[in-house]
Amino acid sequence: MFSAFIDLIFPRICTACLEPLQRNEEIICTDCRFDLPKTNLHLETENTLAHKFFGEVQLKHTLSYLKFVKGGKVQRLMHELKYKGNQEVGEMLGRWYGAELRESGFADAFDLIIPVPLHQKRLLLRGYNQSDCFAKGLSESLNIEWRNDILIRETETSSQVNKSRLERYQNMDKVFTVKNPELLRNKKIVVVDDTLTTGATLESCVLSLQAFEIKDISILTLAMA
Ligand SMILES: [Zn+2]
After folding, report:
1. Dihedral sign (CA 158, 191, 141, 222)
2. Model pTM?
3. 10 CA to centre of ligand 1 in angstroms
4. Is 151 helix (H, G, I), strand (E, B) or coil?
5. Which of 34, 48, 201, 222 has the highest local Cβ count within 10 Å?
6. 113 Cα–ligand 1 center, Å
7. How do strand 216-224 and strand 62-67 relate by DSSP bridges?
8. What is the pLDDT of residues 205-221, one digit of tens each?
9. Ligand 1 centre and the CA of 185: distance in Å?
């Protein structure tokens, strides 16, 4: 009764379409949920994305949940997650994608989720790492551990966009370090980020982690441009 009254005065709205939510809906309305532009890369047998973005690194799986379109719903969701403090959006999308992956035979594909870290300064400014939110949701529905104390970002980097491949590579050199590498031993690692744009950040993370005795490594992002 009381929550219905609150809804009437302060209608909760869908983060993606801004229409009022029904009482049984949270954050994203049912219409938007079924309307999300998915890549469905996990249903493809060939690792096409890996060829496109990652020339030299060996990736087991290259996955991305949603297609990022300028002005679209995914852009709004990403904006909420990155700049509006809406951490629950990332967690919820992580849970949804994790459930889809589990249903498609990925239940045992990974042992450990590692989100791409922010630099300490950026983390303090924003108050949270948006990739942690997504990792947490994935971890819940895939029932595997996630840790943000292994891969550490040592330096802040400028934007990768409008840089050549060599410049991007130099820009990302020695950005990440690995703490407690024994926790990686013989593990199937999946590195998780919010958006895949040039792939340079993820490639650098993968190279840093590959230097240790892992079993295999994959990348997974919430959205891709
Ligand atoms: Zn909606």
Report:
1. positive
2. 0.90
3. 17
4. strand
5. 222
6. 29
7. parallel
8. 999 999 999 999 999 99
9. 43
